[in-house]
Amino acid sequence: MHAENPQEKFTGASKYVLDEELAKIVNISMALEMPLLLKGEPGTGKTMLAHAVAEALHMRLIILNVKSSMKLIDALYQYDTLTRLNDSRFGDSNRDVSNIEDYIKMGKIGQAFVSSEKVVLLIDEIDKADTDFQDDMLDVLDQMQFDIIEIDKTIKAICRPVIVITSNAKKDLSDPFLGRCNFHHIAFPEPDMMRNIIEVHFPDLSKDLLEGSVKTFYRLREIRGVEKKPATRELINWIRALRSDPDFKVKDLVKGEVPFLGVLFKKSPDYAVAQNAVSRFRI
Fold first, then answer.
1. Helix axis angle, 191-201 relative to 207-221, nearest 10°?
2. DSSP code of 116?
3. 36: exposed, middle or buried (Cβ count in 10 Å: 0-12, 13-18, 19+)
């Protein structure tokens, strides 16, 4: 799982602040050609890491969004029987209905395999799938090939993709699955790291707004009774909202006034709990 230039290493991207430990595991995973499994709460940058690797190494990004009902074959290829049936009935297509291969469409893993250039393959939220899907998928990724049974054809990867797999840790992954991946847990950023992230997104942000928003944000995350704590993306959007409001003053945060709570809390019960708590805020 290495880049086209074996000397090329991932050191971050324009909008991704990378810590040293994460950089090491990304680069060793590429060197060893092993999938990298990322765990952590939503909003810690797991998905964005794949985008950053693709940007930094100038590769196309292919994303497989895993669903609970998904079957592995859907990620490999689909046989469009309905279109073939319609073509055979009405005969108004340029395709040869006797050639089943014309009706085979590659899924996301299939697209990564048939790409003539090395790509980044993001398999997002693998914990949504059942254990059989997970283990069978790793078999395919180990062998770098799969069979299309309808046409008795084996698809082999032209270039081994860089594979990033994310999990929100909602349920345990199997031991065989874990054993075939490198692993990194992305912890929620500490305030100092968060300041660096915010400065990357808002290089012209005033120090007062930076400090006030970050301090208020971490206090909001500490509110008891909240099911879904606001994450980095909510903080970024919240700062955008604050900057776009001509009536907003940083001193409002000092007074305990927290506007645009709906940007930070997306569930009604969480919003209500936060609304009740902010009246007691003083930073």
1. 130
2. S
3. buried
Cβ atoms within 10 Å, residue 140: 19
Amino acid (1-letter code) at residue 141: L
Question: Cα separation of 147 and 10, whole Å?
Answer: 33
Q: How confident is the model at residue 183 (pLDDT cuts 50, 70, 90)?
A: very high
For the domain made up of 20-185, the CATH class stated in words is alpha beta
207-217 mean pLDDT: 95
State the amino acid at position 266 in one-letter form: K
CA atoms of 180 and 141, how far apart (whole Å): 10
pTM for the model: 0.84
Match 């014309």 to its residue by tokens: 102
132-to-70, 123, 151, 165 alpha-carbon distances in Å: 11, 16, 24, 16
Residue corresponding to tokens 């969004």 = 65
Burial classification of residue 122, based on how many CB atoms lie within 10 Å of its CB (0-12 exposed, 13-18 middle, 19 or more buried)? buried
Contact 75, 109 (CB under 8 A): yes
The whole-number average pLDDT for the span 127-151 is: 93
Residue 194's identity, in one-letter code, is M
Q: Per residue in 65-77, pLDDT tens? A: 999 989 999 999 9
CB atoms within 10 A of CB 172: 11
Copy the structure tokens of residue 257: 């006034």
Mean pLDDT in the chain?
90
Write out the DSSP string of 52-90: HHHHHTT-EEEEEE--TT--HHHHHEEE-HHHHHHHHHH
Q: Which amino acid is at 17?
A: V
